[in-house]
Design a protein that fits this description.
139 residues, mainly alpha, Four Helix Bundle (Hemerythrin (Met), subunit A), 0% strand, elongated
Length: 139
């Protein structure tokens, strides 16, 4: 297995573990702010996996939207998750820091509805990412 494939596999495995955590949080009906943040992080890891698999040597940054734009250049399938990436990017700061919001604290503001939508978006990102990786022989 090539080094790029190994790195891609490491990232997608961690993303899958993060997804399990998000699903647990949703099932337990707790910590919606943290679940939304981990959804963003899991999406980031899934997309970084695809970038590594496509030959990128260093993948920096945290914006899912920007990663999707880069990945669209490699495969148009990533067009399908442009909006999901944008929505998940909104959770990068505001779910963790009170000064990212105009009032209240993240644990007070984020709801089960927010987490349900984040989980839906994350699952779609996973579907596209796993399909892309499978086409490259990474499963």
């Amino acid at each position: 297995m090539k080094k790029a494939d190994r790195e891609a596999k490491r990232w997608i495995l961690q993303a899958e573990d993060d997804l399990k955590f998000v699903e647990w949080v949703l099932k337990e009906n707790v910590f919606f702010d943290k679940g939304c943040f981990v959804s963003q992080q899991a999406g980031e890891k899934a997309l970084k996996s695809c970038l590594y698999a496509s030959g990128e040597r260093r993948v920096l940054g945290h914006s899912l939207f920007e990663m999707v734009i880069d990945l669209i250049k490699k495969d148009r399938i990533f067009e399908e998750i442009r909006n999901e990436a944008k929505r998940l990017d909104r959770f990068y700061i505001t779910t963790r820091y009170p000064n990212g919001l105009p009032g209240g604290s993240p644990f007070q503001i984020y709801t089960k509805d927010d987490l349900e939508r984040a989980c839906e978006d994350l699952r779609k990102i996973f579907k596209i990412s796993k399909s892309f990786l499978k086409n490259l022989g990474i499963e």
